[in-house]
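Record 1 of the preview.
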Amino acid sequence: MKKILLLEDDILLAQTLQELLSSQNYAVTAVHSGNEAIDLTYENSYDLYIFDINVPDITGIELLQALRDANDLTSTIFISALVDLNSIAKAFEVGADDYLKKPFFPEELLIRVNAKLSSKESPINYKHIEYNPQTETFKNSGNIIALGEVQERLLKLFISNIGQTLDKEILLECLEKPSSTALRVAINKLKQTMQLDIKNLRGVGYTLE
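->
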């Protein structure tokens, strides 16, 4: 079972996220201050950190900087109401893997967690396709497939979340020049290239069935 450390000082939100992630068989420890998080990272090993930034004692950014300085390379997702470019840039500078802006749907965090932790899982099989998260390679009927960057990013998201509806905003982040039209074109191309059963739920998102 994958272990997640969640640092969030909004107790209600922390409980909601902990319940959702636990329902997906993740072992989640929730804390509400930076010092609590530091103590637990010294005593335990985790597969993923989810940190808010504005929390008591020390900020999530200061916490991650300290962990990276101590050679802790655990994957980290920031969740924050800070949406200015400086805060986002600083988060990635200190070693964040992802940044989710509040408010967000809890299910959106789950999608990102699944995609991140799938890199430590065994190969994922979908019909004739096999994805090896360790090497980040795809095989079609046993043969390695070469995909463009956009197609690869989209396919990784879909195959890591089979059966779940992916919000359009998440998928747009895979594009170099995001737009609704560009996303439709990219997904149609992916469907044709890989023979995927991707459904468009109008106004909601896309699902790989």
